[in-house]
Specification:
11 strands, about 130 residues, mainly beta, 7-stranded mixed sheet, 4-stranded antiparallel sheet, globular, about 0% helix
């Protein structure tokens, strides 16, 4: 069973960059066919897939967040990271990292589709508040 743990600041000021890391244990982020995603849930809304990095280091992003999102990895630490730039209070959410074998291509369409069962493992989530 792959375990994931998010880390990063819980408070970010508007216009700054939100940075989170996800540490993976029980498996390697270079394991064939694995995709490593970031997902968020804003207050009163459903979960939204933000983007992913695959086992080869290729990136995939939600069209609505592509211009502000960057996902990278550090294979020496078995971690992958999220950067979301130019944040506003609307980016306040619980942020989750997640693992899946393969990636449902519907997530690349920009629709509101989300199915929790598409992901094999989740981190516990970390609250990030954007406020001055």
């Amino acid at each position: 069973q792959v375990l994931l743990q998010e880390s990063g600041p819980g408070l970010v000021k508007p216009s700054q960059t939100l940075s989170l890391a996800c540490t993976v244990s029980g498996g390697s982020i270079t394991s064939i066919a694995y995709y490593w995603s970031w997902i968020r849930q804003s207050p009163g809304k459903g979960r939204k897939w933000m983007g992913a990095i695959d086992y080869q280091g290729n990136n995939f992003y939600s069209p609505s967040l592509r211009s502000r999102t960057s996902i990278s990895r550090d294979t020496s630490k078995n971690q992958f990271s999220l950067e979301l730039s130019s944040v506003t209070p609307e980016d306040t959410a619980v942020y989750y990292c997640a693992a899946s074998v393969g990636l449902v291509t519907t997530y690349l369409s920009g629709s509101d589709y989300f199915n929790g069962g598409d992901f094999a493992s989740y981190g516990q989530g970390t609250q990030v508040t954007v406020s001055s």
